[in-house]
Specification:
Helix content: over 70%
Number of domains: 2
Distance between the termini: 43 Å
Number of strands: 0
């Protein structure tokens, strides 16, 4: 929801296209991961280690959000751009927290869980 609010702030304020594109892209990717986990598609598509893909997404999003939102706050062409930049920085913090929690949760050394009980 925070990514969507950031996107809407940038769209409403007619901010630079890069701000809007990044916020929209992050909103879309977050929605895709939400649907992936909601419909349990991660269990059906076992060829990719989804928590690692989620960590990779969070790290890349945090780096891009850091640059774009700092530019949006520094330039602050209007109040909508400033609000989008601040919301984007809050989203950046949530991406970092997500990365840390996922890194603590997964371990690459142990085997993955099975869907069916072992015999």
């Amino acid at each position: 929801l925070l990514a969507l609010a950031t996107f809407l702030c940038f769209v409403a304020s007619n901010a630079h296209e890069a701000y809007t594109a990044l916020a929209g892209l992050e909103t879309g990717i977050t929605l895709l991961f939400l649907l992936l986990y909601l419909f349990r598609l991660d269990a059906k598509m076992r060829w990719l280690f989804w928590p690692l893909a989620d960590i990779f997404n969070s790290v890349i999003a945090a780096l891009f959000l850091l640059v774009v939102c700092l530019f949006a706050i520094i330039v602050k062409s209007n109040k909508g751009t400033l609000a989008g930049g601040v919301l984007g920085l809050i989203l950046l913090v949530l991406c970092v927290v997500d990365t840390v929690l996922l890194c603590k949760k997964i371990s690459l050394a142990r085997p993955r869980r099975r869907n069916a009980p072992a015999r």
